[in-house]
Amino acid sequence: MNKTLRSHAFDVLKRVLKTRRMTYADLAERMGVSEPTVKRLFVERDCKFSRLESICHLLDLSISEVLDIADRAEEPVLHLSREVEQALADTPALFHCF
Which candidate in 33, 38, 58, 65 could, as Cys together with 24 as Cys, close a disulfide (CB 3.0–4.6 Å)? Predict the structure, then answer.
């Protein structure tokens, strides 16, 4: 995976965490690792595929969904209202609309 796509993939994951009001500490607890470990993954924007797969699974996303969204990161940014963000957070299937 090229650096740009990988970087955008972590941006996608950060947005999902934010939308779901999850912190790095929440994710770390669910992964069974320390919060500094999760922070390091997001700062370095690099990890083993199995770790990425675990993060996606815990966020109820597939890796292909994340990479597809990341691949489209070059497209104009769409700003959503809080209500729409919350609806997307509550119903991940709505992401397919985008």
Answer: 38
Please give the structure tokens belonging to residue 1.
Answer: 């995976």
pLDDT tens digits, 56-86: 999 999 999 998 888 877 655 667 788 888 8
Quick one: how far is CA 13 from the chain centroid? Answer: 1
92 versus 76: the higher-pLDDT residue is 92
Q: What number of other Cβ atoms are within 10 A of residue 97's Cβ?
A: 6
CB count within 10 Å of CB 69 equals 19
69's tokens: 């969204």
H-type alpha helices, 20-62: 24-31, 35-44, 49-58
Q: What is the pLDDT of residues 12-27, one digit of tens each?
A: 999 999 999 999 999 9
Q: Which residues of 12-41 are buried (b: 16+ CB within 10 A; e: fewer)?
A: bbeebbebbebebeebbeebeeeeeebeeb
